[in-house]
Amino acid sequence: DMKLLCENLVFNKTPEATDDMLERTAYERACIDAKKKGLSMPRKPRGKFPNLPRKQFAYDNVQPKPATEPPLPTSEAAQNHTPNPYRNSNITHEKIAAIRAKATNPTPPKIDHCQPSDTYPESFPHFVRGRDSLREYITSLFTSRIAMYDGAMGTMIQNYAKKNKLEEEEYRGERFKDWKCNTKGNNDQLSITQPHIIKGIYKEYLEVGGSDLIGTNTFSSTTIAMGDYEMEDYVYELNYEGARLAREACDEVTAKDPTKPRFVVGAIGPTNRTGSISPSVEDPSARNVTFDELVDAYFEQVVGLMDGGADILMVETIFDTLNAKAALYAIGEYLEFSGLDIPVFVSGTLVDQSGRTLSGQTGEAFYASIRHAKPMCVGLNCALGAKHMTPFVEKLSKCVECFLHVYSNAGLPNAMGGYDESPDDMAQANKVFFENGWLNMVGGCCGSTPPHIKAIREMSESYKPRKLPDVGRPKMWLSGLEDLKVEDVHNHLGLPFLNVGERCNISGSLRFKKLMMSGDYGTAMDIAKKQVEDGAHVIDINVDDGMLDGLAAMQKFVKIAVTEPEVSKVPFMLDASKFEIVLAGLKWCQGKCIVNSISLKVGEELFKEQATLLKKHGCAVVVMAFDEEGQAATEEEKVRICKRSYDILVNEVKFPPEDIIFDPNVLTIGTGMEEHANYGVDFINATKTIKEICPYVKISGGISNLSFGFRGVMKIRESIHSVFLHHAILESGMDVGIVNAHEMIAYDDLEEDMKLLCE
Predict the structure, then answer these.
(1) Is residue 570 classed as helix, strand or coil in its secondary structure?
(2) How far apart are CA 393 and CA 370, in angstroms?
(3) Do residues 183 and 119 touch, judged by C-beta distance below 8 A?
């Protein structure tokens, strides 16, 4: 190894040659100091290990196939492309009915928007509501040309105010003339008090800009955002009117040219609160909104938008992915209650040239966090001009499985807060997206106007839209602040294996337990950081202890951890014996987590309920090899329970198989009891069989259980683990394990006699 270090340094063979030699030099100095002081010798630097090949199964060799449409939601309506009947009066779920019952509309709202089936001809590019599948129509539109979205609503309202009186009196209108606080600046309110202004803006984007789709004037129409104007009670009406005016404008313009149907996109903004960021400098665990509060607010908004005639729902300007996940959860609830297939678009906002959201995620991590909702189109808007977005749009174009959009600002704001790019400037800035075939839909955000949209449309007309990527083998795609595909991971020893750090687990670390019991969360974060430094790809978080309030401790730990970039850059594994504890932690994670664990020991019905709930939250799940009769110990039992669990999850719950991790129970060997002697072999053999008969699943285990009989002698324990993992990973396909990465020993580094003893 010294020869290799010297060769690399002398002949400049690798970029890391100097750093590697400096690390070795520090080790040699530490050895000299240890000898002088009579201390134990330090651990030798590991150096670089070559990546070893992953065990292949038949399903790993499936060739990618061309995609015919974006990934579909698992609902029956989406799978079958069932047209939305636009008869919302038939949707009578109690939660939806309760929202309608408290509506403030002066007259009963018209909530059905179906059209006679013979309104227009029966083939693309024509579209009739209630007759045609909008999912199919958008797929045809987005694959035939680059579709046009609209531009900024706020800019157009400001421009109107420059030429016409639009002060407090006009914002209030007759309806709110005696309102208790100032409402100027509440642009969404204008849908009620000045509908002619809002409808006029809609029509300008449709007629001058040539927009195929227009967003509703509802960016802030949630109970949370309307709290600033004390107008929480008017949220249903604000959304209804914003969508109704857009519906009228689209229908009027479509009637003039039925070969170019226009569609209403229900705009769902981020609110003015954030689930991932503390509003207090002193307390990183503080929050001013909860996930459940966000879900309730978004659900009410969705009901109003759909009743008003929206065709599509767009969660937009996402600066905190946790807020977006709450909005998507609310949309999912609405779709479940209504039985409808409504296309969903999602648009993130990268706040600066770091290419990250305000809550710290990269664009790829943002997509990995929300892809479970099966959006039909994903993209970026706001914060940056098209020129500054280019590298981030390129990255998204390489990973997004659905359609892709951009609606950028008209450059960066000037000193006065305005935007200087002319229509031609903005069109030129967007040209790079068209030339590279990155987009299916384009529009404008802050500073853009109908002439900007017109110029962009004309620029785009000679270019083809982005081709959907081929559909290949599904992979488990996790995220913290950064994304991680489990099937592509190799650990620090070169093994195709996901290291899940065990030290933030009360049962895995006495020091961590003491810190949690004393409430020292700051020092506990240092343990989490050290695990990532030592090679953990995922952090396991477990606060199970009879003397600790697990529900409160899990939430506080996660809320603090997500604010620590060196910790939250990796995904979390939320680990608890009580389901309500992992669920509570999950609601504070903006990334895609792993939940550990569920099993059939609670019975089939509760197992399905828990799995369904986790699927809605978009997490991966560890499934223990337990059933109603107890823990699987033998190879046969491990295989039987895992296969039964797989069939229920995949066939009944429709859980993505690539997001299932089976834990067939690593049990203790070397106890002196004969019935325990074959536990290691049983696990390794069961792993291979489970991987063969349950396509795309992962296999995990708590590795420290294996050597529990030798506790107190770390060298022996880690040597046993090394041999076990070498065979389980390379020969049987084990993918994941809860380990102490710092202590792991490479198989080839074992002394021969130790290797023999362990084998």
Answers:
(1) coil
(2) 17
(3) no
